[in-house]
Amino acid sequence: MTSIIKYVFWILIPFSLAAQKAHIEARxxxxxxxxxxxxxxxxxxxxxxxxxxxxxxHKDTINSSIEIVDLKIDTIKTDxxxxxxxxxxxxxxxDSGYYVIPAQWLIASDSGDTLLSQMAILGVGTVAVDxxxxxxxxxxxxxxxxxxxxxxxxxxxxxxxxxxxTIALLLGIWYYLTKRKKRDAPIAKIVIPKESAHxxxxxxxxxxxxxxxxxxxxxxxxxxxxxxxxxNYILNRFQINSMEMTTIETISALNNxxxxxxxxxxxxxxxxxTSDFVKxxxxxPLANENDLALKNAIAFVEQSRLIESETISKKEESNDSx
Length: 322
Prior knowledge:
Blueprint: E1 8-10, E2 23-28, E3 32-34, E4 38-48, E5 53-58, E6 61-63, E7 66-77, E8 82-92, E9 97-101, E10 105-108, E11 114-116, E12 120-125, H1 149-179, H2 197-211, H3 219-238, H4 247-256, H5 262-281, H6 287-304, H7 308-321
Helix pairs in contact: 2-3, 2-6, 3-5, 4-5, 5-6
């Protein structure tokens, strides 16, 4: 069975209330299915609006043997102080056996307190085949059918036509290359210096500000473009392909490369996590949070930009190696 990469989205929720009101619960519709059958796994969670929380969303698989067919996130607003979400996974499996669906978690980002749901077990059975009355016969040899030339031509004329056209094109190209005369001297290639990563990113962020997307309720478009600008900057500046990574994988890669300090990491996490939350949970942050996300993106670029001394040092190292 083709292995599917599991993506885990870390989502930063910019709201708060008393931690004791946070809650997470998980359940599965049925604990026993046959191979290829489907069932639903539900996760219900609630948290205070003005406290930061992290929770987990599976994208393609829950574990190596349980595949996600469909994912749906419902937002339930009970009152002005509490948010509630329901995550519905439609799942299936093509491997027989018993598989543990791990506990789902909800983490308070300020204190690190973790709430866990109960685990679930999914049994996947095979379909029994009754062979007691089955009769086994030898495989019959294929019948040979005579095909006339006209029938063969009718079935294969597209390939023959393509062959003739290809031969004609090749002959025409050969004739053109062997008979043409050089008319003009070669034009010198103009090399345009590559723009610095931070200059490009800052210009794109300023252009995004002028579009006024979130002011016109285009929250998803605003955060999608904001996230893409920051991730492309990380690729151009640090050669880390953030466009193919989740938020937590991006931050981990930067930390492993010793490219972030604590303040810069917090700024980047706010930008990418808020963007993920808007894109995948359809949240609508407040006006000051939208403006703060853009300011943090600019601050991240300014704090992590390649300064002139680093550029000179890298050129000297390159010359020494040569």
